[in-house]
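Note to self: user wants both folds in one dump. Writing first protein now.
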Amino acid sequence: MAATRVSRADVSLVLPMTAMDYIAVALLASLLLGEPVTAARWAGIALIVGGVFLVSRS
């Protein structure tokens, strides 16, 4: 049986990548499901992504 290696990345590098999920989900919901994405929702997504960016920089 071959051994597998589990690698770990720094949280400061991975966390900003996971924040992009909010953008992808909103875009796909709008394009595929026809869900309306309001300006307030985009503003909330921008705040989340901006907050994650600030946390990852500290």
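First done. Writing the second protein, which came from a different request thread.
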Amino acid sequence: MPTKPGEKMPFADLGVEVMVTKGGDGEVSATGGGDGLKVGKRYECEATGVQVLVTKPGDATLLCNGEPMTLQEPKKTKSAD
């Protein structure tokens, strides 16, 4: 089932919630454990392009189509001289 931008995905059993920021043809799920999710962090699925934003933190790992999602690094901006 495709994900849609703006869709909130609560994982009540783990106490975490994410919001889709870029939709695509991927199914997002979560499993317990891992490094934990922090509010404001963005994760993406490189295979499908799906991106999510963590809105409720907790000890969980995000998966897209059964594969772990990767943490997006903040974009570096040019410094003004």
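Dump finished. Worth passing along: The mean pLDDT is 92.
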